[in-house]
TrEMBL record:
InterPro entries: 6-blade_b-propeller_TolB-like (IPR011042), SGL (IPR013658), SMP-30/CGR1_Lactonase (IPR051262). SUPFAM superfamilies: Calcium-dependent phosphotriesterase. PANTHER family: BLR2277 PROTEIN, LIPOPROTEIN-RELATED. Pfam families: SGL. Gene3D superfamilies: TolB, C-terminal domain (2.120.10.30). This is SMP-30/gluconolactonase/LRE family protein. Coiled coil: none annotated. Residues 92-256 form the SMP-30/Gluconolactonase/LRE-like region domain.
């Protein structure tokens, strides 16, 4: 295996970050397209489009629905529609937002059971839709500890929707490795990165047994993830407000940290004592990163990292000395 080319001394500081866009609403998930456009989740029921010049346009469900939808993970479909996983208070599901704000249901149940609040989704190059549900518990805060493991990963393929991995510790973002052999998953409150061997066929995938790639601790709660072309896995951690790198040899390297140590200690204690409340996670403490939740690589050379967040109105960016992995949605066109 070739040596991983990034120095173990590579660090980014808050002062190095650039503000790409302001005035966003809960930009939890960010997608980067090849024309310089960014797409971000909009917490009031839709998504935001950020042009290459930084202009923000919001697209929301029309007419305003009675139900409060909370887009969390978003995906760009081959037909140009933006899909989102709904992280509502009690109900979830996968939805598509089309032209003129038209909302349509992609999936609201599996095996006859309604989907709980749903976390993330993406559509691969074989037109298989992958999605995650963090927990079946309502409210979700009952799963904010190391013990509850009732999250799952599902797919919608040619045979329909099904669950292909279950019993996970608050399943969050997932991604396929650069070699196409593994599906990686963040388990946020189990505080670990896992992977599953990809089996089956491209049209009907299956997953093998789970393996732990990295075990985190303290207030490191892995949320977003993205690969570079050399197999490094970049993580965003809410609560600790850190960006970490899991190098191919398994070493975990801190890339960026803007941690409020007192707040992080309170969160770590709450996880251990199983008493975190919703309000505990509605603040980043004194961190300026706003509970950094997403990382996406883009730019002409794929050497720009874009950061989404839960509790701020900005997308920030920094430069890296190697290229991120090109994802299938990068060459898709936003339909409007």
């Amino acid at each position: 295996m070739p040596a991983y080319p990034l120095s173990r001394e590579f660090r980014v500081f808050f002062e190095d970050l650039k503000t790409v866009a302001r005035g966003l609403s809960r930009p939890e998930c960010v997608l980067s397209l090849d024309d310089g456009t960014l797409i971000a989740a909009h917490g009031s029921g839709g998504y935001s489009v950020v042009s290459a010049t930084g202009q923000v346009t919001n697209w929301l469900i029309e007419p305003p629905p009675e139900r409060a939808y909370v887009p969390n993970g978003i995906a760009l479909a081959p037909d140009g529609q933006v899909l989102f996983a709904d992280l509502g208070a009690a109900a979830g599901g996968l939805f598509a937002l089309g032209k003129r704000g038209t909302l349509s249901t992609v999936l609201d149940s599996v095996n006859g059971v309604p989907l709980p609040p749903s976390n993330f989704l993406f559509i691969d190059e074989h037109n298989v839709l992958w999605f995650t549900v963090s927990t079946r518990k309502i409210p979700r805060s009952e799963a904010w500890n190391n013990d509850v493991k009732d999250g799952f990963i599902g797919v919608i393929d040619a045979t329909g929707p099904r669950i292909i991995a279950d019993g996970l510790g608050y399943t969050n973002e997932i991604a396929v490795s650069p070699d196409g052999r593994w599906l990686y998953a963040n388990e946020t409150y189990a505080q670990r990165v896992s992977r599953f061997p990809l089996k089956g066929t491209s049209a009907r995938p299956e997953l093998g047994s789970r393996e732990t790639v990295a075990q985190l601790d303290g207030a490191d709660l892995p949320d977003g993830l993205a690969f570079d072309v050399h197999g490094g896995l970049w993580l965003t951690c809410i609560a600790s407000n850190r960006v970490l790198l899991v190098r191919p040899d398994g070493e975990v390297q801190t890339i960026l940290s803007d941690t409020d140590d007192d707040h992080a200690a309170r969160i770590a204690l709450g996880i251990r004592e199983r008493n975190l409340k919703h309000s505990d996670m509605q603040t980043p403490g004194k961190s300026r990163l706003g509970n950094v939740s997403s990382i996406a690589f883009g730019g002409d050379d794929m050497r720009t990292a874009y950061l989404g967040c839960l509790l701020d109105d900005q997308i920030r960016s920094f430069d890296i000395p190697l290229s991120g992995l090109v994802l299938p949605h990068r060459k898709r066109k936003l339909g409007r």
